[in-house]
Write a structure and sequence with these properties.
Elements: H1 9-40, H2 47-72, H3 83-97, H4 99-106, H5 118-126, E1 137-139, E2 143-147, E3 150-151, H6 152-169, E4 185-188, E5 191-194
Helix pairs in contact: 1-2, 1-6, 2-3, 3-4, 3-5
């Protein structure tokens, strides 16, 4: 890599582009998760919803990994990236890319073997009873979960911080940021709930 290519505007562009891409994928994935959680009460979830959630989540992991790569290019950003979030996004992206080797290990309980690569070993050590392939995880305290230790809300907060830092440096890039989609969640009293379907 040419040391002087990613500086100034080129660097800010990549950081913002992958922040926008990650947010866009979260905005595609989260409404599906909210719908699945809402429909659990009715026990009538179309299979297509699960597949759609899995597809959008996979692309969110790819975008988030590119975002982290852009954030880490020198000079470093001032934002703080939680080390567990960082590690799990990288591992989760790797494990989802190499699904054929890893699903037979992580989707069987008890695990029949130890994953062969570092990303799988590290993920398995941190998550002895959970895997990287749950497309619609959600809980009251954290909301939608991209991975066992990566909530969508934590990733949104990180994207907000990165976006603010980039725009402080290069305000002209604000025209490239799309309007945010409405959240599919209601957050109150420290709990995340899917919005009612009519609201």
């Amino acid at each position: 890599m040419h040391d002087d290519y990613f500086d100034g505007l080129a660097l800010d562009r990549q950081r913002l582009l992958w922040a926008v891409a990650t947010r866009r994928q979260l905005e595609r994935w989260e409404p599906i998760v909210a719908k699945i959680q809402h429909d659990l009460d009715r026990r009538s979830i179309p299979g297509l919803d699960f597949w759609s959630a899995e597809i959008e989540r996979h692309f969110a992991l790819i975008a988030a990994r590119h975002f982290l790569r852009a954030v880490e290019l020198p000079p470093p950003m001032r934002i703080t990236v939680d080390p567990v979030l960082r590690a799990e996004v990288i591992e989760g992206r790797d494990l989802n890319e190499h699904w054929a080797e890893n699903m037979p290990i992580f989707n069987v309980s008890p695990r029949p073997e130890t994953p062969s690569r570092r990303s799988g070993k590290d993920f398995a050590e941190r998550n002895p009873r959970r895997g990287p392939y749950s497309q619609s995880n959600w809980n009251l305290k954290t909301g939608a979960m991209l991975l066992p230790n990566v909530s969508a809300s934590a990733l949104h907060d990180l994207l907000d911080d990165a976006e603010a830092e980039v725009l402080e440096s290069t305000p002209s890039l604000s025209e490239y940021i799309p309007e945010r989609a409405p959240s599919p969640w209601v957050y109150e009293n420290g709990e995340w709930w899917p919005k009612p379907e009519d609201g």
